[in-house]
Amino acid sequence: MPRRIESLFIQGPAGRLEATIEEPEDAGSDAAPAQACLVCHPHPLFGGTMHNKVVHRIARGFRRAGAVVLRFNFRGVNLSEGKHDNGAGEVEDARAALEVLRDRYPELPYSLAGFSFGSRVILRLGCSAGAQKLVAVGFPTRLGHWDYLAHCEVRKFFVQSTHDEHGPKHELEAAFETFAEPNRLEFIEARDHFFDGALGALEDAIANIATLL
Residue 164: what are its φ and ψ, rounded to 5°? Predict the structure, then answer.
């Protein structure tokens, strides 16, 4: 029995949002999903979509751990309506997507994960949304501020390339010291922000984090 993948549109605050819901990797068995996860993509103005290769690996890592995963395109990306809103509107897009995921699977614990710009979005939303954990991949230290993380007591996992040009190792380590506990920071040896040469290692790291219920 094949794994179920559903394409859908979500009513967002600026119009319809293109989305995909995917069952866990072992959905061919009788096992029901053990958790749910919303995954957000990188910056829309620089080609970011829900089909980004890092986003794909994050989603697959969670599905390996038994999660049902919802990915979506922010406003103005591909078939999603609206225009880019510099992060503020995109947080509300993510909130609308999360509501759909929670309505579909109300009994499941849920997490938020995002790559680059998407990591900023999920941290903004997740610190007040009751998520079980937040997974920030490729956190861009050179985009905006992060003072709100000093008061965010949700479990936060940061996964970063050792050669991230948008979130250099030394900058993230310094920022991490100001974040509220509980936190974990993991570096993966990779060539750049997009985890070139290490996508498999990234997926494994995400799958391990996802098992921490």
Answer: -85, 115
How far apart are the C-alpha atoms of 19 and 41, rounded to whole Å? Answer: 12
Tokens of 68: 């049902």
Through-space distance between the first and last CA atoms of the chain, rounded to whole angstroms: 27
Q: Which helix (H) or strand (E) holds 59?
A: helix 53-64
Render 65-119 in DSSP notation, one character per residue.
TTEEEEEEPPTTSTT--S---TTHHHHHHHHHHHHHHHHHSTTS-EEEEEETHHH
Euclidean distance between CA atoms 26 and 23, whole angstroms:
8
Residue 33, helix vs strand vs coil = coil
Reported as a single tens digit per residue, the pLDDT across 69-80 is 999 999 999 999
Place of tokens 């498999």: 200
CB of 191 closer than 8 Å to CB of 163 = yes
Residue pLDDT, tens place only, 110-160: 999 999 999 999 999 999 878 999 999 999 999 888 999 999 999 999 999
Q: Delineate the domains of the chain, giving CATH numbers in brackets.
A: 5-210 (3.40.50.1820)
* pTM for the model: 0.96
What does the alpha-carbon distance between residue 66 and residue 35 come to, in Å, rounded to a whole number?
A: 7
Between CA 80 and CA 187 the distance in angstroms is: 33
